[in-house]
Amino acid sequence: MAAVIRFVHRSTFSCRMGHQCLSSSCSAAVPKSVQVGSSAWKALPERVKIVEVGPRDGLQNEKTVVPTEVKIHLIDMLSEAGLPVIEATSFVSPKWVPQMADQVEVMKGIRRRPGVAYPVLTPNLKGFQEAVKAGAAEVAIFGAASELFSKKNINCSVEESLQRFEEVTKAAKEAGVPVRGYVSCVLGCPYEGKVSPDKVAQVAKRLYSMGCYEISLGDTTGVGTPGGMTEMLEVVSREVPVTALAVHCHDTYGQALANILIALQMGVSVVDSSVAGLGGCPYAQGASGNVATEDVVYMLHGLGIQTGVDLTKVMDAGAFICRSLNRKTSSKVAQASCKL
Amino acid sequence: MGNVPATVKHCLSYEQLVQDFPWLAHWLQEEKHALTHEYPEYVKIVEVGPRDGLQNEKEMVPTGVKIRLIDMLSETGLPVIEATSFVSSKWVPQMADHTEVLQGIQKHSHVRYPVLTPNMHGFKDAVAAGATEVAVFGSASETFSLKNINCSIDESMLRFQEIICSAKQQQIPVRGYVSCALGCPYEGHLEPTKVAEVVKRLYELGCYEVSLGDTIGVGTPGSMAKMLHTVMKEVPHSALAVHCHDTHGQALANILTALQVTALEMGICVVDSSVAGLGGCPYAHGASGNVSTEDVLYMLHGIGVRTGVDLSKVILAGDFICEALNRKTNSKVAQARGECW
After folding, report:
1. How many CB atoms lie within 10 A of CB A63?
2. Prediction pTM value
3. CB B335 to CB A287 under 8 A?
4. How many Å apart are CA B337 and CA A317, to the nearest integer?
């Protein structure tokens, strides 16, 4: 519960020099009332699971098509870095996403580390069946909290998409394959603008009820701020337990780490991120997209939160993929560690 | 995220963006949020771009450009703009035109223009040039103090005492800075008690406000909270500011932490930032430095905190200086509103 504090007076600021300084300083008011719920410095989780989406979400949004062996090597390096979940590829039609055309080869080529999950995206039953045939042991489905985004992105309404996903979750249940759900546009939509937290909660709840073990809430265009994140999570966590929620923040407006921090304070303990911040924002040319795994891990470790991840090895993987893509890293930690 | 067809491309100039998505303009203005009670109602932004920012840029900036930048920033609603530095031009050639800058800018009545004064000589020059507020720069780290300003912390305090005494007589407010508040490039981790000691000394000498600088941007929300908690035992929260560097991408998260009001403590309500994120980190080549004013404003407005600053005008000032410096902005907000390439 948030602390309720009302700032009543704006105090003019008497500086140490003994005269009134400009009163445009802070409102250092006495709080009218303070409700101490579970506030104070809100307890952070002891451990956070990082879901590495670089090889799928990251590469999918890179212009350069990456050779299969480079993808495989990247995933292998990330497996060695201690990441518990690495989204490997996507079983969508190569007509739509040429970058993921080598989905089967990637699945078969990677060295699967014991204890690491390698979910793959499956937009429909056909994709699911192919994924299982290729050896997938976990899949992911992608809903949206915005009707327009759903139509433009996957060519159907939110309701239609949820019906498609029900087919997938049913089949997955029968096959004993866990399913992760994504909801995009949770803090804003490039077409509709503001998105109601109730709508987000509705979609998240549907995905959870149909069997998704975890729902990743995506700030697709990175417009969210800690204010919007707080409001959205409060509403969604009434419908889906916070232990089953993850945040997938984009850093398009530089807000990602602040948004992630707020989510942690609200009890979320699963964070999606992308090595080297791979994957630009397709809606704003030149803008950044996924938050960089290196920067997230730096923050979490600085907070004393365990992740099981070796930051140095993630940076190595980031350096590798950036060399292959011939681009600079989007991770500030990686940039800072580069001393010429 | 998702299967976005590669053909979706939006050309987003800022004006276009606001035209097409009016909700975004609303978000860029001050949006009240139901949960503002967790944060101060108002945060004062101290714009350090023209001094701290430009000082760390490689390109020498013509006086006319500096003046124009400050004038543009004065139009944005920013309440404090650090204009220049009265240090020896031998050490900081970028600030050699301090007198011309201070005398050339259009001083708005609702804006303050502090200038850095490292010693009495600089202070006298600043006053002669018309300065009405000055700033002194201390350090929580002995080694950094020696390397940066060529004297120990104790020696620097003696220098500052001289300045503050003289400033008091002339009714000139003095702002203090403490660098390395969350880590030193030479000494590494610094104990919060050490930081608090230096902050307290500056405050007791007579600084009306002390800005706590994460000089190499190594701080994270945990170390920020610990440091502030310790410092606030010695100095009231209302006399503190945070000056975060974004070298490791932690600045906004650290600022958010500093602002958060808890059941036990009030939040900080003064934040230093630099337009377009001007000013790299001199200790890590290619790394970023100052947090950008645009990104800070975007966050603050998003959580319902008032600043009195017009974000769109800051973006324009950022555009101007980046063009003059022939460099890209470090602000993600400015990058996001996009140019068609």
Report:
1. 9
2. 0.87
3. yes
4. 30
> What phi, psi does A143 have (nearest 5°)?
-95, 180
Q: Which of residues 120-139 of A touch B (CB under 8 A)?
A: 121, 123
Size of interface A-B (CB pairs under 8 A): 266
A189 is catalytic: no
Mutate to test the interface with B, among A12, A257, A311 (most CBs of B within 10 A): A257
Shortest CA distance to A159 belongs to which of A179, A171, A144, A180?
A144
**Do the beta carbons of residue A83 and residue A119 sit within 8 Å?**
no
Distance CA A109, CA A311 (A): 25
- Chain B residues with CB under 8 Å of A26 CB are 40, 42-44, 238, 269-270
pLDDT, tens only, B159-180: 999 999 999 999 999 999 999 9
Structure confidence at residue B90 (pLDDT)? 87
CB of A58 less than 8 A from some CB of B: no
A294: its two tokens: 């290196």
Amino acid type, A12: T
Q: Which residue type is seen at A319?
A: A
Interface predicted TM-score of the whole assembly (ipTM), two decimals: 0.85
Q: Which of B35, B40, B269 sits opposite A2 (nearest CB)?
A: B35
H or E element, residue A171 = helix A158-175
d(C-alpha B220, C-alpha B218), whole Å: 7
Give the per-residue pLDDT at B28: 55
Residues of B in contact with A339 (CB under 8 A): 284-285
Distance in angstroms (rounded) separating the CA atoms of residues B330 and B246 = 10
Question: From the candidates A212, A281, A322, A338, which is the catalytic residue?
Answer: A281
- How does pLDDT run across A202-220, given as a tens digit for each residue? 999 999 999 999 999 999 9
Edge to edge, what strands does the sheet with A139-144 contain? A85-86, A49-52, A270-273, A245-249, A214-219, A179-184, A139-144, A120-121, A89-90
Helices (H), chain B: 14-20, 22-28, 54-55, 63-74, 98-104, 120-128, 142-149, 153-169, 192-205, 221-231, 251-259, 293-302, 311-325, 332-336
In the predicted model, is pLDDT for residue A274 greater than 50? yes
